[in-house]
Write a structure and sequence with these properties.
This protein is elongated. The protein has 187 residues and is an alpha+beta fold. It has 2 domains: 2-27 and 108-186, Ribosome-recycling factor (Topoisomerase I, Chain A, domain 4, Orthogonal Bundle), CATH 1.10.132; 36-103, 2-Layer Sandwich (Gyrase A, domain 2). The chain is built from 4 helices and 6 strands; from the N terminus they run αββββαββαα. A hairpin with a 2-residue loop joins β3 (57-63) and β4.
């Protein structure tokens, strides 16, 4: 029964990572509201090293349409501005002394539709990843059964357990996608 317990743990760990990826990708989609997650993927050239923005500055969203970046070292402001321009955000940063502001324009109806399609695509990719992990786990269970390391009852229970894991993680992905979609259309 030990190989089955390891299989559950490995499968669940991989499913958690897949869910984390979808969560991060959906967080990077700009809804109508400003969010620090919008610039989470931006890296800044900090004394010759590519460093994530959140490690060189405090990133906040004090207003629904504004992201404020306050670097801890004022000398890095020009590098932050350059990194934000090169990040492909479609927004020009505004430098005011030691602070960088990102004004978030309201979304057009056409842009909302595009972003909704992107949300659906990312969610589907996440569901496919989860189903692939289910398939791999079930194939492993079948191999254990064929090698007579587990009984037929244990194989059935294991596949049922893997299916429950799959349903749980796909449900979480669906909830994330629905939440992001409603965020896009509520503003």
């Amino acid at each position: 029964m030990v190989p089955i317990q390891n299989l559950y743990k490995e499968t669940e760990d991989k499913m958690k990572k897949a869910l984390g990826t979808v969560t991060r990708e959906l967080g990077e989609i700009r809804g109508g509201r400003a969010s620090p997650a919008f610039v989470e993927h931006v890296t800044v050239d900090y004394y010759g090293a590519a460093t994530p923005l959140k490690q060189v500055a405090a990133v906040t969203a004090p207003e629904p349409n504004l992201v404020v970046i306050q670097p801890w070292d004022a000398k890095v402001v020009p590098e932050i501005e350059k990194a934000l321009q090169q990040a492909g955000l479609g927004i020009n940063p505004v430098v005011e002394g030691k602070i960088v502001r990102l004004p978030i324009p309201p979304l057009s109806g056409e842009r909302r539709t595009e972003l909704t399609k992107l949300v659906h695509k990312l969610a589907e990719e996440g569901r496919v990843n989860i189903r692939t992990l289910r398939r791999d786990a079930n194939e492993h269970v079948k191999k254990l059964k064929a090698d007579k390391q587990i009984s037929e009852d244990d194989a059935f229970k294991a596949q049922d357990q893997v299916q429950k894991l799959t349903d749980r993680y796909i449900g979480q992905i669906d909830a994330l996608a629905k939440s992001k979609e409603s965020e896009l259309h509520s503003t």
